[in-house]
Amino acid sequence: MSTFLFDKIVFGPVQSRRLGVSLGINLLPPDGKVCTFDCIYCECGWTDKGEKVGILPKQEDVISKLESVLTDRMQNNLPIDAITFAGNGEPTMHPKFAEIIDQTIKLKQRFYPNARISVLSNATMITKPKVFNALLKVDDNILKLDSAVEETIRKINCPLGDFHLPELMEGLERFEGNLVIQTMFIRGEYDGQKIDNTTEEELLRWLDALSVIRPKQVMVYSIARDTAAENIEKVPLKELETIAKRVKALGIDVRVSG
Ligand code: SF4
């Protein structure tokens, strides 16, 4: 499978329908994926089990690279609508994540005050007060919840450390609605086990969880590129739209990407 890694700290910008001109920030290594999950659908391939953690980019390098790209774009009258923390793994694992968010907010105010700062996270680090507080400061705090059934999360996201769904749920509730939930729907088979987070039982549990978390938005999507595991199927757009209608019926804003 040809999965994909970002080879720079600051990448793009890419033109996104949702975010506009979006600059990406990769707080993980350029040559491997570091994450607390090992999702079978990950487009970055399988997680490096710890050996790359020591070579995360330095805080000062992240900030100087970002400052230089923003300066260059501003001087050339080029737009930036969003700065998005994504990349090769879980951005909140970076030990200076909170400090980098504070500095990014300052740079954004100086160069592109109308740009939105987004973080795409798997939510496993939200029990850490520093991470929680940093996520509260960004415009779009986008947190993953692929299932509300612990067994399914274990099959799909394959957590690498201590993981307990009730703890994750508690953490998500503590945002008091100041978060976006992102859910990847897939079907397939991995390691001899059937995987499907679109069954009626799964959807009922997930919708119940959303009713409790009350996010400001839910993003539903399916795979778009090659995945770490083989035999993972994309869920058709029509089906995602049917799922989205059920979220809307809860009074929660929802966005679908096919
Ligand atoms: S949380 Fe994101 S980066 Fe980590 S394994 Fe899953 S899809 Fe990949």
Which helices and strands occur, and which strands form pairs?
Layout lengths: L9 E7 L3 E7 L32 H17 L6 E5 L10 H15 L4 E6 L7 H9 L2 E5 L5 H7 L8 H9 L6 E5 L1 E5 L2 E4 L3 H14 L3 E5 L10 E3 L2 H12 L5 E4 L1
Parallel strand pairs: 2-3, 3-4, 4-5, 5-6, 6-9, 9-11
Antiparallel strand pairs: 1-2, 7-8, 7-10
Helix pairs in contact: 1-2, 2-3
According to CATH, the fold-level topology is TIM Barrel
Which percent range fits the helix content? 25-40%
Widest sheet: strand ordering: 1-2-3-4-5-6-9-11
CATH homologous superfamily designation = Aldolase class I
Report the radius of gyration as a whole number of Å.
Answer: 18 Å
List SSEs in N-to-C order: EEHEHEHEHHEEEHEEHE
Small-molecule binders here are:
iron/sulfur cluster
Low-confidence stretches: none
CATH class: Alpha Beta
CATH architecture level-2 label: Alpha-Beta Barrel
Distance between the termini: 21 Å
- Overall mean pLDDT: 94
The percent range for strand residues is 15-25%
Main sheet makeup: 8 strands, mixed
Principal-axis shape equals: globular
Total strands: 11
> Which structural category fits the helices and strands?
alpha/beta
Number of domains: 1
Helical segment tally? 7
